[in-house]
């Protein structure tokens, strides 16, 4: 299905409680092997609701990003970036990430970190195109046996 065939306006906004069922579905579509359990997404919303941005077209959620600052406020972690599979490859993940980075710069966050499966070439390419680097290489067994990840970092400039 092409991106936005009816030219529906796309909106990035903070998630609201009514978005939770759609967030759960979107996460399960984007990460079929290991989606967040419903209770985890619910509690992440309760604790970090202002840190979940969604992208919607007025009818459905097309993507979301979750980012959380460390207690000192200088480092932020991208905990999840997901786009519904039928809309991947159209720049929606980039839009969400760019908006999150804009907000983090405004908060004077110094560094943004994330992990990504090293076999997810599209995601690695997206992060590198925005300045993230993975100087330590592959972190073997980062999330347990055979769950390798790149730990990627971006230093933000004011």
Q: Low-confidence stretches at least 5 residues in length (pLDDT < 50)?
A: none
Q: How many helices in DSSP terms?
A: 4
In the CATH hierarchy, the third-tier topology is known as Aminopeptidase
Q: What CATH architecture do you see?
A: 3-Layer(aba) Sandwich
Topology of helices and strands:
Blueprint: E1 11-14, H1 20-30, H2 38-48, E2 52-56, E3 61-69, E4 75-83, H3 92-106, E5 111-116, H4 121-129, E6 138-139, E7 149-155
Parallel strand pairs: 4-5
Antiparallel strand pairs: 1-2, 2-3, 3-4, 5-7, 6-7
Provide a short characterization of the protein structure.
With 158 residues, the protein is of the alpha+beta class. The chain contains four helices and seven strands.
Q: What does this protein structure show overall?
A:
- This protein is an alpha+beta fold and 158 residues long.
- The protein has one domain (11-155): Gcn5-related N-acetyltransferase (GNAT) (Aminopeptidase).
- It has four helices and seven strands; from the N terminus they run E-H-H-E-E-E-H-E-H-E-E.
- It has helices at residues 20-30, 38-48, 92-106, 121-129; strands spanning 11-14, 52-56, 61-69, 75-83, 111-116, 138-139, 149-155.
- A hairpin with a 5-residue loop joins strand 3 and strand 4.
- The longest helix has 15 residues, at 92-106.
Main features:
4 helices, Aminopeptidase, 7 strands, alpha+beta
């Amino acid at each position: 299905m092409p991106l936005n065939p009816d030219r529906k306006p796309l909106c990035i906004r903070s998630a609201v409680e009514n978005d939770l069922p759609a967030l759960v579905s979107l996460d399960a579509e984007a990460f079929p092997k290991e989606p967040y359990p419903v209770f985890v997404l619910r509690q992440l919303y309760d604790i970090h609701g202002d840190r979940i941005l969604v992208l919607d077209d007025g009818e459905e959620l097309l993507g979301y990003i979750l980012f959380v600052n460390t207690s000192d406020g200088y480092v932020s972690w991208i905990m999840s970036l997901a786009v519904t599979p039928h809309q991947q490859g159209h720049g929606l993940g980039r839009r969400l990430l760019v908006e999150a980075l804009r907000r983090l710069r405004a908060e004077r966050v110094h560094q943004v970190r994330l992990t990504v499966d090293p076999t997810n070439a599209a995601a690695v390419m997206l992060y590198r195109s925005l300045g993230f680097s993975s100087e330590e290489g592959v972190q073997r067994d980062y999330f347990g046996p055979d769950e390798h990840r790149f730990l990627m970092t971006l230093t933000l400039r004011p």
